[in-house]
Write a structure and sequence with these properties.
By secondary structure, this protein is of the alpha/beta class. The chain contains ten helices and 15 strands. The longest helix is centred in the last third of the chain and has 20 residues. Bound molecules: nicotinamide-adenine-dinucleotide.
Length: 352
């Protein structure tokens, strides 16, 4: 039987499920949100009530035994992605997994292997690939507009933007700013570079500011967050080298005493370069330098990127086609992320 719709069970009834994933599933014609599971069943029930979703589950086994569900979206904290993905794949469900894929390379390898063995769709929710700017820059790269991209810089600099709740605890999250926001910009920039094979990483991590009581600042908050342990890094820098000779420099901070810079990605190619957010193409024409700023009027917001991500996932579930952000890419990104931690710990460049 071919599935006509992605009939999804949402796993984890927290902030990203409520704010981004469920609203995106609900506007997708090819998807239907059948159930929500959370170990706090009242959270699952609250989202079912809010969005008119029929079934709330308090046990993973019950959701996975539900034959109406053909796919799941894993929206729990990072440390549970692996165990939930393996159980879902074992139960024959296609998987969409929130970022980061896992908290270690070994976990990501097991997830990739399981998805391949079962022949099911495994897609990483790398939402920034689905921004209009990324889609445009990727098309231009494929058309050869930039020539070979030999260097890139990316980062996400928040002056005071540390998320609250489990994010700051190493045991509960697996890692700090690198796994939380580094993953977004590293994945997006690496994807737009054409996914060269990473061969080495030199990274440093810092924790100097920690918790703060700065007035008038607000950030992402895990559901039910309270002040917790803070033993994760809040900032990191890295240089990643690739097999084709290209390089990527990365700067990340949840908090730093410098100018807020938001998320950025810059590509440097032999023929032209680009800034991704907002999209600007830096070239040369008729002997003059040119800055081309494509006007992206419609559907350029973050939530629109979530909606495109969900449409793509539903398409993959329905048609069986391979996602643009599959397990292989999740694993490669995991190698770069954990490479930053390993290099920082060892105080030297490490080979991947
Ligand atoms: N794509 C994005 O831009 C984006 C943004 C924020 C968060 N995220 C990712 O989404 C995930 C969730 O983040 P959040 O901010 O929504 O967290 P959250 O703490 O608000 O929500 C997680 C929910 O999962 C439940 N949960 C945790 N472990 C569970 C388990 N083993 N079994 C059942 N339920 C469990 C918790 O009770 C909670 O309700 C994280 O991996 C995070 O990195 C992605």
């Amino acid at each position: 039987m071919t599935d006509k719709k992605a009939r999804v069970g949402i796993i984890g009834a927290g902030t990203v499920a409520r704010r981004n994933q469920i609203p995106a599933f609900q506007v997708c014609d090819r998807a239907e949100t059948v159930a929500v599971f959370d170990r706090h069943i009242e959270r699952a029930q609250a989202l079912c009530d809010q969005f008119g979703i029929p079934k709330a589950y308090g046990r993973l086994e019950d959701l996975l035994a539900d034959d109406e569900i053909n796919c799941v979206s894993i929206c729990t904290g990072n440390v549970s992605h692996e165990s939930i993905a393996l159980a879902a794949l074992e139960a024959g469900k296609h998987v969409l997994c929130e970022k980061p894929m896992a908290i270690s390379v070994e976990q990501a390898e097991r997830m990739k292997r399981a998805a391949e063995e079962r022949g099911l769709v495994f897609m990483m929710a790398f939402v920034n690939r689905f921004r209009q700017e990324s889609i445009l820059i990727n098309e231009l790269r494929e058309q050869g507009r930039f020539g070979e991209i030999y260097h890139a810089r990316c980062g996400w600099i928040r002056r005071r933007g540390t998320p609250s709740g489990w994010f700051t605890s190493r045991a509960k999250s697996g890692g700090g700013a690198v796994l939380d926001i580094g993953v977004h910009v590293i994945d997006m920039t690496w994807y737009l570079m054409g996914r060269p094979k990473p061969v080495s990483v030199s990274g440093v991590t810092h924790r100097r500011i920690g918790s703060y009581r700065t007035r008038s600042v607000a950030g992402w908050s895990a559901v039910g967050a309270q002040d917790g342990e803070f033993d994760n890094e809040e900032a990191a820098s890295a240089l990643i080298r690739f097999e084709n000779g290209a390089s990527l420099s990365v700067d990340i901070s949840w908090s730093i005493n410098g100018k807020e810079e938001g998320m950025f990605a810059k590509l440097y190619g032999e023929k032209a370069g680009a800034s991704v957010i907002p999209a600007v193409i830096y070239g040369e024409e008729d002997g003059f330098l040119t800055d081309v700023e494509p006007v992206i009027v419609a559907e350029s917001g973050w939530q629109n990127a979530f909606e495109r991500e969900i449409v793509h996932f539903a398409d993959c579930v329905v048609s069986g086609c391979a996602p643009i952000s599959g397990a292989e890419d999740g694993l490669t990104v995991q190698r770069m992320l954990n490479g930053i931690y390993d290099s920082a710990e060892q105080g030297r460049e490490i080979l991947l």
